[in-house]
Model the fold of this input.
Amino acid sequence: MNGKTFYITTPIYYPSDKLHIGHSYCTVATDVMARFKRLQGYDVLFLTGTDEHGQKIELKAQEAGVTPQQYVDQVVAGIKELWNLLNISNDRFIRTTDDYHMESIQKIFKELYDRGYIYKGSYKGKYCTPCEAFWTESQLVNGNCPDCGRPVVDAEEEAYFFKLSAFQERLIKLYEENPHFMEPQSRMNEMVNNFIKPGLEDLCVSRTSFTWGVPVTFDPKHVVYVWVDALSNYITALGYGNDRYHDFEKYWPADVHFVGKEIMRFHTIIWPAMLMALDLPLPKKVYGHGWLLLEGGKMSKSKGNVVDPTILVDRYGVDAIRYFLLREFPFGSDGLFSNESLITRINADLANDLGNLVSRSVAMVKPFGGTLPTERQPEPIDEEILSLARTLKEKYEKHMEEYAFQNALIEIFKLISRTNKYIDETAPWTLSKDPANHPRLATVLYNLLECVRIAGILLTPFMPSTAPRIFEQIGAGPEITSYESAGTWGLLPANATVHKGDALFPRIDVAKELAALEAAKAAAKEKATPAKKAAVEGIASLISIDDFAKVQLRVAQVKSCEPVKRAKKLLCLQLDDGTDTPRQVVSGIHPWYEPEQLIGKKLVVVANLKPATLCGVESNGMILAADAGENDVKVIFVDDTIPCGATVR
Ligand code: ME8
Done:
């Protein structure tokens, strides 16, 4: 331990059914950095988590026919599984629905209010529901949301506002005095020109149109705006405003927040302003990485063009995927993902360069029975790889400190390629034939093993499962695989003993594999039935008959039905439930039903559900529907002879 702390975070993810390789990119990068810092001896805190509140989640839960809490619980379990699969070494996982976090958010909101930075007003503006973001007219692109390009809606509501405009000058000063506050540097121009220069407006920070959020303690019909809720996770996870953790003093300010470029605005304007208002120190750096693109644009679930990381890990192993993500694309720029580039990279760098180097170096110790003799015969030709190996750690470290993962890996692979060339130059298989050449052979082999040791150490953060296999094969114990030891040549004992192991990365047949990948993708699509999973998981938590009896199910007939304005998925149904008053229910079934398919039909309604407002329309109850396969929903219609109001049990 070097006595220093390092606090690094990923964004907290929206619980969407399936995270794709683009989401994994940021988390893998953060993990590599956290592991690198631990290797250097830092006391690291690596935080990730999920961002679970907001109207979007409320609607998704409604569509899935479960409560928002049930919905997020199920999805978050899947996200944690994915991070496990990718060997993510986060120290904490925060959920914005965790009690301690919600308690802190309420205190933070009140504190900002008491300090005069939050005031009550009325909001009129353009709102993007999928992004949960309000925009000013001037920020719209062709009248649409500048982030996702989707249409925005006019919204007006009583709301609390954060005095963001009061921080304009202080933010400019922050950027001027800390030119490295944002990386890559180009992001700073983007923020200043697009957001700061046009003038910051106060930010609407509460909502009354839905309830799935943290209630404002002193005005509970308001819930806290999701971004205020979400950004604060970076301090609530340390115990700010709660008793769950006690290391705010120790770790804050964060050394770096890793975030995707589209959410830089929130992290470099709103977040520092909130911290200034709370009189708290600011994060040292916000790094805005690029996007993984597929041909046709950004990978995104709504476009249906996503790559499933679980399929890739299953086929090539976790370390190959981790390596590819950070080697293929410069961290700050966008990168085009393709299966061809993935397989080519695995074959060239991992199977050929690294894998061959390790297996050949180890195999060639065989004439000595696996243990090197100690007599040596160095030659001038050795100098080049020795000097490359001796200086590698320093170059690597410089790149890593700048978050230039790709350059750090390029440096390591320069040594690996050069070492492979050294094998060709020294021809150990010829040396082995004549015992007189064995001292020279032992020298060559020792040099190879030392290069492998040094490369292996520096690859550890990227390939945490492969590095120990490398060390095992070359017989390097923990005392000579520490980070520090990568800076010293000659630590393997002169009589090193090797252990032949399996190939680290088997070579892939490109044509066969591309076909197999397509097939795996199709099979996964077929199998993917998130809704069925929800039902099965629901069954796992049993309820008593008394609990069930609390749910009042009634037969009702659809009298009229129409789409809810500005909400693509919602239908508003007027039901006859056997009482004198028509019952209005809003349901997210428009993707599967047109109003005329419902009018006159009898169905089952949950009659004692608390009213909720969806896109401004009140809903009294919920109609029952079944998840009939991937992306298919069927309303449960009942026999026409059952009278309206009949109890279902
Ligand atoms: O933005 N390539 O959550 P999120 C690279 N909850 N990165 C990508 C990507 C792609 N194709 N697609 C998504 C949120 N990401 C908020 C964060 S933090 C206080 C709140 C990245 O689940 C995206 O850029 O939509 C973001 O950094 C992260 O995945 C989470 O996105």
